[in-house]
Amino acid sequence: MTKHDVLILGGGLIGQTMALALDRHGLRSVVVDPVDPETTLTTDFDGRVTAISSSSWKLFDALGLGPLMRGQACPIARIEVRDGAAGAPLDFQSDDDDDALGLMLENRVLRRALWLLIQQAPHVTRRYGHQAVTLDRGPNGVTAQLDDGEVLSAPLVLVCEGRHSTTRAAAGIPVAAWDYASMSIVTAMDHSLPHGGTAHQIFYPGGPVALLPMNPGTRSALVWSLPEADAKAMAKLGERAFLAEVDRATGGLLGDMRLVAPRAVYPLQFRHTAKMTDHRLALVGDAGHGIHPIAGQGFNLGLRDVAALTEVLVEGARLGLDLGDAQLLARYQRWRSADVMAVTLACDTLVRLFGIKGRVARAVRRLGLGAVQRAKPLKDLFMSEARGESGALPVMLTGVTV
């Protein structure tokens, strides 16, 4: 039986980041995943990008990931929000002396950087291409048997399996879940007008359209949410017809466009667990919450889980506590529950608010956007939320280790 400080189930972006954060503080983890991350590495751009808040990037800096990726990330200097392409924009812009509001990063860049550092991490054991066939959470620790017969043990199991986690289901943790009956079309385009580091979010009753700045300055990612039938039909259009629809929906903000990545379609769902912990178990990332991509906060919410849980476990280890101790897990639960609830409900409320049809509803929304535009304190609050800098921040979100 091989003993570790932490057993991590799920070796995706969140699982690997969690392992690196623990490794940075000398805690030993074993990562189990049926998919080898090396098989997901690609040199081809597939159109998938992620918005990284400025505080999340500071976590990357603390882990040594930031320097590997910064030259390939595009800073977001400005965000413009509209109700329909013809609506007056509500804009958020960082001052010259401030950090960018966030950075846009290709998923393939993050995957390569994580894979590089995971291979070099002295306290991370990798069990890729395997899965746990049994998991016993006893009074004194956790024991898992893999499909090849190997037995692993640790005081605590971290579940990083995503929103369809089988381990969470087996633990009997209740989940509030519903489908939005919508799908997102994700791709990327080159365009004739420079984006100037501006992210555009345009709301329609059928769903929002986001144009997200990428490198070089004439390339943007598209995330377009539509009712399920419309999204499937739109994804099947020829390139010229599809780009014409994008131009109509965005009001020609970026000039002439051409596709530079395949179109992918993803279902939109809401998932929120009743709790983030159980006996000797903690949920991290989408295993504990799955939100609409309307504000680009899903992955950042998971990174805040990583930073908070790392701080809790590192401080517990320094005090000589059992890492599966109920009091440690209760601290993580308290720390994350309010933030997760606030973000998930805020995103769901935005989806429903902008989904109301009719001239009166649109007039009210535009009046509200105009009021926020004129209220600097309120805009500053929203910018702080966008940066991920509100509330009680874990130390690693300031760019340093615990």
Describe the structure.
The mean pLDDT is 89. The protein has 402 residues and is of the alpha/beta class. It has eleven helices and 22 strands. The protein has helices at 13-23, 54-63, 66-69, 107-120, 166-170, 228-236, 239-250, 298-318, 326-354, 359-374, 376-387; strands spanning 2-3, 6-9, 29-33, 49-53, 74-76, 78-83, 90-93, 102-106, 124-128, 132-137, 142-146, 151-154, 157-159, 175-191, 198-203, 209-214, 219-227, 257-259, 264-273, 277-278, 281-283, 289-290. The strands form four sheets. Strands 6, 7, 14, 15, 16, 17, 18, 19 and 22 form a nine-stranded mixed beta sheet that branches. It has one domain (2-176, 269-398): FAD/NAD(P)-binding domain (3-Layer(bba) Sandwich). A hairpin with a 4-residue loop joins strand 11 (142-146) and strand 12. Helices cover 36% and strands 29% of the residues.
User: Could you say what the CATH topology is called?
Assistant: FAD/NAD(P)-binding domain
Q: What structural category characterises the helix and strand content? A: alpha/beta
Q: Judging from the principal axes of the Cα atoms, what is the shape?
A: globular
The biggest sheet amounts to:
9 strands, mixed
Average residue-wise pLDDT: 89
In the predicted model, the low-confidence regions spanning at least 5 consecutive residues are: none
In percent terms, what proportion of residues is strand? 25-35%
Spell out the CATH superfamily: FAD/NAD(P)-binding domain
| Tally of alpha and pi helices | 11
Rg over C-alpha atoms, rounded to the nearest angstrom: 21 Å
- Reported CATH architecture: 3-Layer(bba) Sandwich
How many independent structural domains?
A: 1
Provide the helix percentage.
25-40%
The count of DSSP E runs of length 2 or more, i.e. the number of strands, is 22
N-to-C span: 30 Å
Would you state the CATH class?
Alpha Beta
